[in-house]
User: Fold FAD/NAD(P)-binding domain-containing protein from Favolaschia claudopus.
Amino acid sequence: MTQLQTIVVVGGSYAGTWIVDQLAPHVHRTHNVVLIEKNSHMQHLFMFPRISVVAGFTEKAFIPYTNAFHGAPPYSTSIVQGVVSAVLPDRVVLESGRSICYDYLVMATGTGALPLELTTKQENVTSKLTLQERIRIARDVVVVGGGAYGIQLAFDTKEVYPSKNVTLVHSREQLMPRFHPRLHSIVVDRAITLGVTVILGHRVKVPFGGFPNSGQPFGVELADGRCIPADVAVSCIGGTPLSSPLLALSPTSVDPKSKLIRVKPTLQIVDPLFPRIFAIGDVAETGAHNAAGPAHRQAEVAARNIARMIAGESPTIYVPAIHKIRLSLGLHFYVVFENPEDGKTRMYECRVQRVWARRAPGVTDYRL
Assistant:
């Protein structure tokens, strides 16, 4: 019986789990798919702002991997809980010392805080319950970071606890800076409606070791010397791309400033020495914004390309879509926003241009 080869996927969030879903049915006759993930359970990150404030369903945000790939052929997938410390030309090395050989490798590690640690569901649930209680008893809540996570956390807090003073601080002049300024205006208008104080263009001095959320009042210091009163402060600045395991093997494939993994349009890393290593999701420099939608599309392209390479065919390319987001602005209010293609809003045309492109491609005479 022929020994099956191995495809290793590092990272079990949206991109990593989706590429396993896509790969296993197509390659199971020749390859096993091994997922390596540091967390014991898949984390539904979109719930994290809400379960930081709202009680009653915290456990639902952490989903067991027990039967995660039930749609895959039997015995075609396996899951290893571990932290990858190094990528070598033919295997990955875990912090435990274990090595797992690969024929194809997909880095779907996302972003996060270093150093990485193995986590359990109970540890993560306890952390969120602790934050819920700290916010519940606080009078002044400060949220640092004007991305989706920070906006949702601040707005949920103010809606659940209208009497609390909630301040959202962002270092840039525009919230959600990767999107058209119109989204910023929508968010600011909603903040005014809820009563959330928004401070823009000011950096926060985050203390070494984090904010002292011990239950005693303290001050959140801005770079200009101002101090915002707080009983609890939450940093939602975002994590670092978790590309370091690849750095020693292929330093040219990791951007020294952003730490993103540089990839070709095929989602292979740029280093020609390693055509069988791919990177997708938030850790990859694809031109897409960080969200589940782009991660899913990248997973589909990378899975298709691996299957094509196994079959001796050339890989296809990934084309980033227009930035689009479904952004929660409170418990019962959200906005679906899509960046306009030419930088100008076209809502007054009811998006008819997209229908023309799909049903009458190349036609520019709209009188026909």
The helical segments are 14-27, 48-51, 121-137, 148-160, 181-194, 244-247, 292-310, 352-359.
